[in-house]
Amino acid sequence: MSTQVRKVMNIDFNDIKFYPTLIKDYLNGTLKKKSIIDWDYSIESVLNNSSKRKFESRNTLVKSLIYQNSDIDLSETSTKNLEKLKQDNCFTICTGHQLCIYGGPAYFFSKILDVIKMTQVLNSKQDKHHYAPVFWMASEDHDFEEISEVNIFNKNLKWNNNIKGAVGQLSTETLKEIQDQFSTILGSTIKPSKINVIFEQAYNSGENLAEATRYFVNEFFGKEGLLIIDGDSPELKQLLTPIIRREITEQITELSVNRGIKKLSDYKIQAKPRSVNLFYIDNNYRERVILEDNEIKTADGKLSWSQEDFLQLISTTPEHISPNVFLRPVYQELCLPNVAYIGGAGETSYWLELPELFKALNIPFPVPVVRNSYLYLSQKQLDVIENFGFKTSEFFKEEDVLVKEYIEKSHGDDLKLSK
């Protein structure tokens, strides 16, 4: 039996209580009015960014994308986007995510859809510039717990693996048991079977999690022209080396981001920078870099360098250095001719801490765009909401508030609950 999906309504972000005040004030223009930011939250701001955006690393970017995507079948649309990236009037709209098994949460996929949709809208509005959608794989993330579980139809699947380090480098050989469970849950009807084949091919043919993720993301979205980039690349890391030097010698991130945080003193801060915002990575190893007593070392004490030796390290093998949550956006903008980044409320919150850092580094700042959120309700659930006398949008209220309102609606003036 087929299932029909229909859009019931759009709900404004300001009507949803769980979005932080910082995000609401960003969307409704309050941050601009307070002179905390200097751009409007609008499609026009993205177009304006394009007119000002200069990008000098197109050859490096295109060569890296060709090399990284050589083992997958790029669609005709993706190939055209790759060719257009050689031209000065081509820009990117980007999103990124951790390499969760089977994509993980639904917004892994919805963020990609948002990026594709935005590029389509921008390309339809004008013909001066061309926009290509890009997915940035967070392959250097080391939080295995966050990427090792997925919930499919209320059944939780967990990948048990004790290996540490950058998750993109993890072998997918131990995913066999999970694949069998995934196949059973999906069943054997036509559409689930096609989806299952894509994931099986991804995890069986890829040498590591990054390759597997690239394969299934391309299979699902390649026809829409999506390009997939992995920052775990020696060639791309060369672009970051001047910033790494300033991070070590000047602590540029901490000084700059703290200026941005000061502007946001009325709001809850998503994250705070460290004196050094870098990791050292190697096979099955990723550890924070710290500066202590004029010596550079890993936080676990296993490795240490003099400043001179560390600066030599980043010159010869920059692939061993990985940016943290603050410098990853900087790295991304060095690699891409980007004019907007789409992320969740949490991601957008820390992007809003970064304009001062980008200004200090003389790097153009993209427009942070809050991803769309989706709530799927069955017809049975919609009927229950209606029978209780509520609108769908009201179910974003706290549970105790809903209970109180329901009792008062049911009993009218016979019963009034105190606040």
Describe the structure.
With 419 residues, the protein is of the alpha/beta class. Helices cover 45% and strands 15% of the residues. It contains 18 helices and 12 strands. It has a 5-stranded parallel beta sheet with strand order 5-2-1-11-12. A 5-stranded antiparallel beta sheet has the order 9-8-7-6-10. Helix 6 links the parallel strand 1 and strand 2. Helix 8 runs antiparallel to helix 9 and helix 9 packs antiparallel against helix 10. The longest helix has 19 residues. The protein is globular, with a radius of gyration of 23 Å. It starts with 20 loop residues before the first helix and ends in an 8-residue tail after the last helix.
Gyration radius from CA atoms, angstroms: 23 Å
Choose one word for the global shape. Answer: globular
Strand content: 5-15%
Pick out the low-confidence regions.
Answer: none
E-strand count: 12
Average pLDDT, all residues: 91
Query: Order of strands side by side in the largest beta sheet?
Result: 5-2-1-11-12
The percent range for helix content is 40-55%
Topology as a string of helices (H) and strands (E) = HHHHHEHEHEEHHHEHHEEEEHEHEHHEHH
The end-to-end distance, rounded to whole angstroms, is 47 Å
> What would you call the structural class?
alpha/beta
The biggest sheet amounts to: 5 strands, parallel
**Number of helical runs?**
18
Helices, strands, pairings?
Blueprint: H1 21-27, H2 30-33, H3 43-52, H4 58-68, H5 76-84, E1 90-98, H6 107-125, E2 130-138, H7 144-147, E3 149-152, E4 155-158, H8 176-186, H9 190-205, H10 209-221, E5 227-230, H11 234-250, H12 252-263, E6 278-282, E7 285-292, E8 295-298, E9 304-305, H13 307-316, E10 321-323, H14 327-335, E11 338-343, H15 345-351, H16 355-361, E12 367-370, H17 379-387, H18 399-411
Helix pairs in contact: 8-9, 9-10, 11-13, 11-14, 12-16
